[in-house]
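FORM 7B - TANDEM STRUCTURE REPORT

SECTION 1: FIRST PROTEIN
SEQUENCE AND TOKENS:
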Amino acid sequence: MTSRSAITAALRLSEKLPFPLKRLADLAYNYWWCWTSDRIALFQTIDPQEWERCGHNPVAILEAASYERLTQLAEDPFYLKQISALAREFDTYMAQQDTWVSRVAPQVSPDRPIAYFCAEFGIHESLPVYSGGLGILAGDHLKSSSDLGVPMVGVGLLYRQGYFRQRLNRHGWQEDYYLDNPFLRMPIELIKNEQGEPLTIKLEIRQRQVKVQIWRVQVGRVSLYLLDSDREDNDPIDRWLTGHLYGGNLETRIAQEVVLGIGGVRALEALGIQPSVYHLNEGHAAFCTLEIARLEIERTGKSFYDIEAKVRNSCVFTTHTPVPAGHDVFSPDLIDSYFAQYWPQLRLSREQFLALGARRLGDPWEPFGMTVLALRMCRACNGVSELHGQVSRKMWTVLYPQRSEDKVPIGYITNGVHAPTWTAPLLADLYNQYLGEDWKTRAVDPQMWAKVDEIPDEELWSRHLILKERLIAYTRYKVKKAREQRGEDYKLIQASDSLLDSNVLTIGFARRFSPYKRGDLILRDAQRALKIFDDAKRPVQIIFAGKAHPADEEGKRIIQRLMEWCQNSGILNRVAFIEDYDIYTGQKLVQGVDVWLNNPRRPLEASGTSGQKVCFNGGINCSVLDGWWCEGYKAGSDGKGINGWAIGEDAHTSDQELQDRIDSRSLYQLLEEEIVPLYYDQDAQGIPHRWVQMMKASIKTNAPLFNTDRMIADYVSQVYVPEIATRVEPILAKVLL
């Protein structure tokens, strides 16, 4: 059923294309194209301006292109050869049977795939159902699962308006707005039943029957199913259940989590998919454990406690944040209003049901926690870095009173990034030459990455400069467009054309603007910062991007302070803020900056992955020792960083003012005494050889470890199929060979 509907979408589009271009329809409906080396030219060539207008949506641009333009391309031999070569590569990829997982864990069968549940998925900017790190990680998880041949299906929600869009007014204040997603012109397909009607599942939400339909997104060999309540036969309020990502109040949140968890399991049942493992990526999907239990009780007639162990054995859980606000909790009254008709189906009393999500049993006012439910109902749990595993064990000791902290059953698998997605094609081409054309399939091999030393300094540096120039051009375009929309002074708009300089040391800072991430730490001593950035001989420039949650007033104030700083006459051309951060902007940033800045309060950064993306592009991290950087940072015998810099002291303190003071001083000192001098130590040809050596160290020490091929191999051997753990380690360095 599902494959036929996907083929129908591609066939419907191909009918509009000249015969030589028909394979473009197949490629457009599978996001595999977005991590190929030809991803830039394939669809952009059709109409570069329309490509920008449609948000890099391959289906939309093929729909919009005139037949005259398409016939021009159909007689272009170079373009036809490109399509033919890419179509052959795609067909080979999709048909591949001898994959890493087929050799290492053949018991993971396509008939019993891993079901990966997440509230957001960041696959590509043309599918805006993500907000930030959690979604990008989920998208990369699916991509590497596809590459390694791991049988997997994703389960999420299709949001009518996705996450909010961002614009800044003339006072630098973030304004939030939303746009409808054009589902019928996106690379997604509505699943239909044998009668040609949308396949739906039913949910009871606050005594109302809600119908939810299912859309399919193809991510290489992995299918992602997204649930959507925006149907005419639903109550108007229910149509908006899947309206916004992380929008609305607690009622909206719990309703969405019912759709994701309970609806997700029912959708898989309706599709005839029987997972071997349910992977809950964060607690938003924890209600799925209850629906698995309900179905088992319905099938067997047994009690909840009789089948509890079986349910737990099929579920695993990844927790992503030590920040309390990141763990959803709901009042008993709210649980009553959503589940009073549900817990009898589990053969549980109200008290027994509430106990599943209670940190402390016996307290009638104890809220129902989604993370608590997941920890109780899953056989395995992991944090997303070694430090985060430690923090999580301490955080959840209350659930394991009979165990010491180090015995709390929460492990860790450090996050990674999908190398083909985040590595600039210009550098991928360089890796083809010096590491071998199979480098993408050997991302975990440290011996291969050691060959980075063979790349001539001038060649790596020249390509890096091209990428930096591209980033600066993109930043100028975005800033100029934003100033025009705000109605800024004409001179300020024109000044955008001279913003930033590719010869200047360039720092990037892009992430969610939450107070604990300290987006304005570099401004703590504004005069000292100004002196660093406005140095006549060795200037520094910085590019900011990121959003504050609509309800986060302090996060918005941080952005406003940055925007005010941007207007300082001494650094007017040295500071830029790119509005409406998305995957495309993120790619340009991580591929073009010299230094990636990350300065959260310890130990609140669970992992972080943006700095990992920088490494694949030769960028260098300057970060607090938190999250993944605790594992990535390498210091020499002199105590200085070999592959980047560590901000502040490796110490945790509850005194935020003290930590901010220590870290800001450390950051200024690193810039003044190490980073700036190293960058401007250049030879007569303008090549900073010692800097380039650190670029190479950043690549070869981090790339083999912090990629999603390694991460997925860890999930397979440690979580999905732990019985193969003893076999995988010797093979791990040869993933995909």
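SECTION 2: SECOND PROTEIN
SEQUENCE AND TOKENS:
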Amino acid sequence: MTDETANQGIPAPDGEAAVIDTEYEIGQDNLEGSVGPIGFDIHNPVFMVSGISIMLFVFYALVLPEQAAAFFGWLRPAVTSSFDWFFLSAGNIFVLFCFFLIVSPWGKVRLGGADAAPDYTYTGWFAMLFAAGMGIGLMFYGVSEPMSHYSTSFGGVSMGENGARTDWAPLGGAAGDSAESVRLGMAATIYHWGLHPWAIYAIVALSLALFSYNKGLPLTIRSAFYPIFGERVWGWTGHVIDILAVFATLFGLATSLGFGATQANAGLNELFGVPIGSTTEVILISAITAVALISVVRGLDGGVKVLSELNMGLAFLLLIFVLLVGPTLLIITGFFDSLMAYVQYLPALSMPFGREDANYSQGWTAFYWAWWISWSPFVGMFIARVSRGRTVREFIICVLLIPSLVCVLWMSVFGGTAIHQVVADGYTGAQDAALELKLFKMLDQLPLASITSFVGILLVIVFFVTSSDSGSLVIDTITAGGKVDAPMPQRVFWCVFEGAVAIVLLLGGGLVALQAMVISTGLPFTVVLLLMCWAILRGLQSEPR
């Protein structure tokens, strides 16, 4: 198994490792051949079931757009109102599990074998991890979410005729108290962008890295469940797991691409008067997907790595600019105050039961957890691909804690600046704008607004490209049975398909449709992640440390 794994682009363990002895060979269920000059090497039936199911879904959304829009409009609130407790409980379990691994003796296990060395420097590793993990979301929500939670907290609780709350304030709000509204708003934002999402990513990435680099199994989601299901993971048990991973990844990416297109459209309208609407967004998705194809052809090091480092450099420059020209001292003190507020409010924000703030816990948190979980196969496999050679403890700390702190800093700089404009200057442009416009309205009040807004649009677009490219790489690996060197046309196919799904969902119901599909695919995959925690423990127990 080890030799076969190495032949498919996954290196054999360096030094001592508990390789699993299985008769399964990577690609044994694959269909290989070519159609003219185009070669293919696809897993049967994962590729077929995934591809055909998604094409039928796209056909339905195109042929019956009104019915599809009504269905999507019903689906999201139906799932979040029924399963919000499940999403919140699972998120808490993932965070606690990661902290347990950090302090446990298994933290000494090295991914890739006892003598493995890291493939990438910390700089390159963090850049790829971040650009793939949260790029578009940070651009879209960096101003809009802190501002939204601040405004609703300041407004306080409001009740409808039936006695149910109609406000969107987190917890009980902080009616009329501006300072506490800022603290609660930032805590509610950090809760969605801190430990919980990165714990979700860390679990999937760790399981994939452990069972591929140490156990010699294919780099695909099913491999993590070998300790639970044994040889059955190569049959329909594993097929179902991988198909769910493809669905979750594709719709999670489509949602992010939809957010990116909406925000880029809003920014282009603000700067150059480009019309806002579905036609422009379709053109944007099509054009950026074409750019992503170039990155796909260039490969991981020549495409994603280069673009990720470029984007991280641009994002860092924009962050430093806003920090220096904005209310610098307030931002710095606000960073630490927000962290303290996060610790203070975390127990209440993460409570799965007895919540009275249904709009926040269901409309925000449950959606976010489903979104992160739907992204987890994509981000997790991508992180696994670039994390060989790290110890489990180093891996968890770097993937969980450091990105969480960077997210807090990002929200403190952008969200804190926008809130300061309201509280100190009385400027409500960002507060009153649509979600996709809030970033640009905030930048309008700072020097060099046209330049920084253009940089913001550029960041959204390049994050868009890296997400599409990375997602294509991951879906192609899953649907090729764990092969990481499958024919290039397959990756091109999935790259085009991601853009097509994003376009169809935008036309068939807008962002509501995108969010509905994330919720519906994230729900079953949450069960997969919970089982994955047990599988990781079983796998680590046999490893040398």
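SECTION 3: OBSERVATIONS ON SECOND PROTEIN
The first helix runs from residue 2 to 7.
The chain is about 75% helix and 0% strand.

SECTION 4: SIGNATURE
Preparer initials: ____
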